[in-house]
Amino acid sequence: SGSSAAAPLPEEDCMKLNPSFLGIALSSLLAIDLWASKRLGVCAGEDSAWGSARPLMKVIEVSGHAIPWLLGTFCGFCQSDSSAAREVLLNLLFALLLDLLLVTALKGLVKRRRPTHNKMDMFFTISVDQYSFPSGHASRATLVCRFVLRHLVLAVPLRVLVVLWALIVSLSRVMLGRHNMTDVLFGLLLGYTTYSVVEYCWLSPLSAPALFALW
């Protein structure tokens, strides 16, 4: 009847009609992230703006992949006859494994799909690689960059090249259409933090004598 009061909207409908400021801000940031990531995906396909640079970007992609770094570090550790070098390489191996574990866990937890313009032609992928958040390449590149700058004595030009390599590897993730910008930014933060954890838990003959006794 006309005199009867209108039924109140369900709580969830009220939330949809009156979104919070935080919800609006997050939605806007997500939209900007998706838009900018697509615009920067200039090597996402052969017909893209910079499609001719795609093979070079894929070489850079491989240079930041986990498998070459894990195998190279493990082989260097096994062949090294210096106790100091073995200590550094063992901690680098520990750092790479920790980084891989954290990235895999976060990807499985967040389950953010890769950009729609991504071509799934990556080098040696596993099931969790269908997800994009965070970028494992960006995290690994940042981790390795900090590790190398801290534990290797390099001339200034080489130190600059190491930093440039980490930045280019991270940028290639968006250019190839593998990741969105926020995936890469969080990956950089994760790699930086992971290195700090490794430094705090540094493995040495004093802190882990049983481990070093194996060699």
From TrEMBL:
CDD domains given in the database record: PAP2_containing_2_like
Bilayer topology annotation: Multi-pass membrane protein
Listed Pfam families: PAP2 (PF01569)
Principal location: endoplasmic reticulum
Enzyme class: hydrolase
GO biological process, one term: lipid metabolic process
Keywords: Endoplasmic reticulum, Hydrolase, Lipid metabolism, Membrane, Nucleus, Transmembrane, Transmembrane helix
Assigned GO CC terms: endoplasmic reticulum membrane; nuclear inner membrane
Keyword Iron-sulfur recorded: no
Domain annotation Phosphatidic acid phosphatase type 2/haloperoxidase: ranges: 88-199
Compartments where located: Endoplasmic reticulum membrane; Nucleus inner membrane
InterPro entries: PAP2/HPO, PAP2/HPO_sf
EC number: 3.6.1.68
Catalytic reactions on record: (2E)-geranyl diphosphate + H2O = (2E)-geranyl phosphate + phosphate + H(+); (2E,6E)-farnesyl phosphate + H2O = (2E,6E)-farnesol + phosphate; (2E)-geranyl phosphate + H2O = (2E)-geraniol + phosphate; 1,2-dihexadecanoyl-sn-glycero-3-phosphate + H2O = 1,2-dihexadecanoyl-sn-glycerol + phosphate
Transmembrane segment boundaries: 88-110, 152-172, 184-203
Molecular function, one GO term: sphingosine-1-phosphate phosphatase activity
Family classification: Belongs to the PA-phosphatase related phosphoesterase family.
UniProt name for this protein: Polyisoprenoid diphosphate/phosphate phosphohydrolase PLPP6
Source organism of this protein record: Bucorvus abyssinicus (Northern ground-hornbill)
